[in-house]
Design brief:
- The protein has two helices and two strands.
- By secondary structure, the protein is α+β, with helices and mostly antiparallel strands.
- It has one domain.
- It has a two-stranded antiparallel ribbon with strand order 1-2.
- The radius of gyration is 17 Å and the shape is elongated.
């Protein structure tokens, strides 16, 4: 991950991370990282969310 400086806010530097080479853009990765650290899901929670996402994706494919 490469961090690029964007500007400063009263002496504090503001940076945006660059996730070059990752599958998803930083607009997706950053909020997901925040949610992961904020709510600290267990492996079981992540597996359940993954199962639900796949089911919803399959349903949306059949609906169109």
């Amino acid at each position: 991950m490469i961090i690029r400086p964007v500007g400063s806010l009263e002496g504090l530097s503001v940076v945006t991370p660059s996730y070059r080479g990752f599958r998803f853009p930083s607009e997706i990765i950053s909020p997901c990282g925040w949610l992961y650290h904020r709510f600290n899901p267990s492996l079981r929670d992540i597996e359940e969310l993954s199962r639900r996402a796949r089911a919803a994706s399959a349903e949306s494919k059949h609906a169109s």
